[in-house]
Write a structure and sequence with these properties.
Layout (H helix, E strand, L loop, with lengths): L5 H7 L1 H4 L5 E3 L13 H7 L5 E3 L8 H12 L7 H4 L3
Antiparallel strand pairs: 1-2
């Protein structure tokens, strides 16, 4: 997706810079794969695998913050607070 349609990829990840709940994690290649990629894409492009993670202490506000982020990100799914609370 990044190579075929960089504008669409930037649109897909536009939510990420607007939120403060998740960080991008995952293994990275040691060498830069393509130095011509814009800086906004480079951090994503260099990943062997990727995932978004929220590293923080669990408290009563965490499920609501995750819900807000998922709704604002428009990532195509929605989890309720009950889905996110431990069994």
């Amino acid at each position: 997706m990044i190579d075929e349609n960089p504008k669409e990829f930037l649109k897909a990840i536009s939510f990420f810079a607007k939120q403060k709940t998740f960080v991008l994690e995952g293994g990275k290649y040691k060498r830069i794969i393509d130095k011509t990629k814009p800086e906004k894409i480079q951090n994503w492009y260099q990943r062997k695998n990727m995932y978004l993670v929220c590293n923080r202490k669990i408290d009563d506000t965490l499920p609501e913050q995750i819900n807000r982020c998922l709704i604002n990100a428009d990532v195509g799914f929605y989890a309720t607070q009950q889905d996110l609370l431990p069994g």
